[in-house]
Amino acid sequence: MKIIKKEGNVMNPDRYNRCCFYCTHNETLHERMIEIKPLHVSTFYLNRDQTHRGRSIVALNWHVDELFQLSNVERNEFADDVAHAAQTLAKVFSPDKINYAIYGDSVSHLHVHLVPKYKTDFDWDDAFVNNPSEPKKLTEYDYQNLIQGIKANLVYEEDLE
Question: 0.85 cut: is pTM over it?
Answer without folding.
Answer: yes
